[in-house]
Amino acid sequence: MGRKYPVVDIGKCTLCGGCIEVAPMVFRYNEGLNFIEVVDLDKYPEKEVNEAIKNCPVDCIEWEEDK
Ligand code: SF4
Fold first, then answer.
1. If you take atom 6 of ligand 1, which residue's CA is the nearest one?
2. Confidence at residue 5, expressed as pLDDT on a 0 to 100 scale
3. Which of 7, 31, 38, 59 has minimal Cβ neighbours within 10 Å of its Cβ?
4. Is the shortest distance between the CB of 61 and ligand 1 below 6 Å?
């Protein structure tokens, strides 16, 4: 199985900050470039990321997996 990681569709993201509240270890606001970035981790906490996915008001976070 490949590595599983969350991705943010920055075209849809409204920068509401909800994902950062729920999973600050995973999502971070990039002030210089003005978008939400996913922190580079070896393994992502499934529960927190799922919570962020569930709470994102515009449904722009999803899991992807390396093949
Ligand atoms: S919760 Fe969704 S819309 Fe809000 S900042 Fe995170 S990715 Fe963007």
1. 19
2. 97
3. 31
4. yes
For residue 60, count CB atoms less than 10 angstroms from its CB and return exposed for 0-12, middle for 13-18, buried for 19 or more.
middle
CA atoms of 3 and 31, how far apart (whole Å) = 27
DSSP class of residue 43 equals S
- Domain that includes residue 53, residue range: 4-65
| 22 CA to centre of ligand 1 in angstroms | 10
Cα 60 to averaged position of ligand 1 atoms, centre (Å): 7
**For residue range 11-37, what is the model confidence (pLDDT) as tens digits?**
999 999 999 999 999 999 999 999 999
Question: What CATH number has the domain bearing residue 32?
Answer: 3.30.70.20
